[in-house]
Design a protein that fits this description.
Low-confidence stretches: none
Number of strands: 9
CATH superfamily of the largest domain: CBS-domain
Distance between the termini: 46 Å
Largest sheet: 4 strands, mixed
Number of helices: 7
Strand order of the largest sheet: 6-7-8-9
CATH class of the largest domain: Alpha Beta
Shape: elongated
CATH topology of the largest domain: CBS-domain
Mean pLDDT: 88
Oligomer: single chain
Helix content: 25-40%
Number of domains: 2
């Protein structure tokens, strides 16, 4: 899926010289957690977010370091913190190191970028200009839309359905092809065999549930501790 399919195309931004209170008011009015900062040439120069306003003199929430830590941090770091706590313009509090993603970029790449840098939103660009934003909320809306779509149905017979499931298991690096058997009848899939990690059981059931044509999954799997051979979990019907 491409970023353009999920992103918010309505761009709300501020120039660097915007008074901080005006930016805050805009964020609250628009119900946004962050704003891209764009200069007169249209270049993305920063991003301002809720986190940039957490430590403020007006709220008496300035950072208070013990004396030994102040010595370690040094005057430069402490001066930078002071600016963030007392600044009046967006350019003084914004984050200047900004990550962005192109409209035609893969959504998986955008998610990886957000996770890697622990950020909640990404400016989206096209031909070097910001055209919108991609946030975690946009991802949740896309997931809700995908989950609400009509379930796919397949009219293949049980043999074809079983073959697809077996092939999907084999394609997974964790797939227990050698120790698990698959039986299919009237859309019901029965899984039999032995596993060595219960997390594989969960992943296997989820994968089979998502296969078009599957109506029900019945778990008859046994989990064994690989080093001792101790039975960790038995099929529900066989549990003592």
């Amino acid at each position: 899926m491409k970023v353009a399919e999920v992103m918010n195309h309505r761009l709300v931004s501020v120039p660097p010289q915007t008074p901080m209170l005006d930016a805050l008011r805009l964020m609250l009015d628009e119900k946004l957690s962050g704003l891209p900062v764009i200069d007169a040439s249209g270049a993305l120069v920063g991003i301002v977010s809720e986190g940039d306003f957490m430590h403020r003199a007006e709220l008496d929430t300035e950072r208070r370091h013990p004396r030994w830590l102040r010595l370690l941090l040094g005057p430069g770091r402490l001066a930078a913190e002071y600016v963030g706590e007392h600044a009046r313009r967006v350019e003084e509090v914004m984050t200047r190191e900004v990550y962005s993603i192109a409209e035609d970029g893969e959504l998986a790449d955008a998610v990886a970028l957000m996770e890697r840098h622990r950020i909640k939103r990404l400016p989206v660009t096209k031909d070097g200009r910001v055209t919108g934003m991609l946030s975690r909320a946009d991802l949740l809306r896309a997931l809700l839309s995908a989950g609400s779509a009509p379930a796919k149905t397949v009219d293949d017979d049980a043999v074809a359905l079983r073959q697809r499931i077996v092939e999907r298991i084999a394609r997974q690096s964790w797939g227990p092809s050698a120790t698990v058997s698959v039986n299919v009848r009237d859309g019901t899939v029965d899984l039999h065999g032995v596993l060595y990690d219960d997390r594989v059981r969960d992943a296997l059931c989820v994968m089979v549930e998502n296969e078009p044509g599957v109506q029900r999954v019945r778990d008859h799997l046994t989990t064994i501790e690989p080093n001792t051979g101790t039975v960790v979990r038995m099929p529900p019907g066989l549990a003592a």
